[in-house]
Amino acid sequence: MPSFSWRAWPALVLLLFHSVAAEESSLLEGWHEVWLFRFLVNVLGYSTIIIPGYLLISYFKRTNYLETGSGICYPVIKTCVFGSEAKTGLLDDVSVAPRNEGDSGSSVRQILKLIFCAAGLQVSYLTWGVLQERVMTRSYGATTPEEEGERFKDSQFLVFMNRILALTVSGLWCTLFKQPRHGAPMYKYSFASLSNIMSSWCQYEALKYISFPTQVLAKASKVIPVMLMGKIVSHKSYEYWEYFTAVLISVGVSMFLLSSTPSKHPSTVTTFSGVIILIGYIVFDSFTSNWQDNLFKYKMSSVQMMFGVNLFSCLFTVGSLLEQGAFFDSLAFMTRHSEFAFHAVLLSVCSACGQLFIFYTINQFGAAVFTIIMTLRQAIAILLSCFLYGHAVTIVGGFGVAVVFLALFLRVYARSRMKAGRRSAQPLAQKV
């Protein structure tokens, strides 16, 4: 009996070790499935690049490197930290050219430009939206309807795929075609880049918790945070009708969200998670468009803006992916599923084309007009998603959608009337 006990001890210890290891493994896997954990891990990865960069920029500014520095690295450091102007604040209006609002062009030419921008944005992002829902909500590799297949889970890799192609396209464009002399310090692009990749991550991640029509209509309400960010970042003022239409949009979105049936997402925690992620998307995206709007005060082209933002986006995302070990896992998923590889590349192409139209639209018409164009696109996206993927919309929800787009059309109408009034007042002022 004693000999049996001594022989059993190693087996018991080994069994205990395996059970503890299994519990730890399941705990880690459980944490990995929590979106907040993935979000914090991503932020930690970005901070390993942001913090050293901030310390270096502070050091170069504190030591007055622009006047005392020299050597091979001097042009690179000057471009990244100081730009072509030695003494400008973060968003100072001094020594920077104002954005071209198209006042010198004819009204017909401006209308044609607006139609071109709107059409390009619609085609690029409608295709992108349909593919986005397919990638994030459907499985790959299932040969029969009974098989579950394998789902792709890493939203950050899709963000990287989108940004690397956009960086390549904008880099080639800047090389082949003449661009304005670049004046903005390169590090200023990192602010828009960080908020852009965070908003894109939230956009992909939210589809795991809510339906695509819910996400699309919630995006329509970002006119409100865009206005708030405009007051904070750009010190803009708005008319009373802009606040009125913003409230109407909020009412319509609330009607749609509250009337949605919870059959596909019965969990309260899951629904709450989706709402929180959507709020994160709206906040980050509102900051991005207003920051880019301010950066255009420097004399730069939309392609230069695209290159600068995507350069930092690639740096942030690839660094975080490599630190987490997720980069090669995602590549392995692509090799296992050729259909996913095709969808990911097509997503990137649509995103790159869409970004060209985004920067050009913001450059020509500003962040508010761009937001209205993108919001109009949401109505078509909802119809497409309901048709392709069978999402149901209740009567109250449909009325909420109608209220949102009625508010948007009122917004466009009031803006056009206000501009017409200003144009008619200018000749009178000149006569006086």
From TrEMBL:
Residues 1-22 form the signal peptide. It is a multi-pass membrane protein. It is found in: Membrane. InterPro entries: EmrE-like, SCL35B1-4/HUT1. GO terms for cellular component: endoplasmic reticulum membrane; Golgi membrane. The chain crosses the membrane at residues 38-57, 240-259, 265-284, 305-328, 340-360, 367-390, 396-414. Its main location: membrane. Keywords: Membrane, Signal, Transmembrane, Transmembrane helix, Transport. Belongs to the nucleotide-sugar transporter family. SLC35B subfamily. This is Adenosine 3'-phospho 5'-phosphosulfate transporter 1. It comes from Sparus aurata. The lineage of its organism: Eukaryota, Metazoa, Chordata, Craniata, Vertebrata.
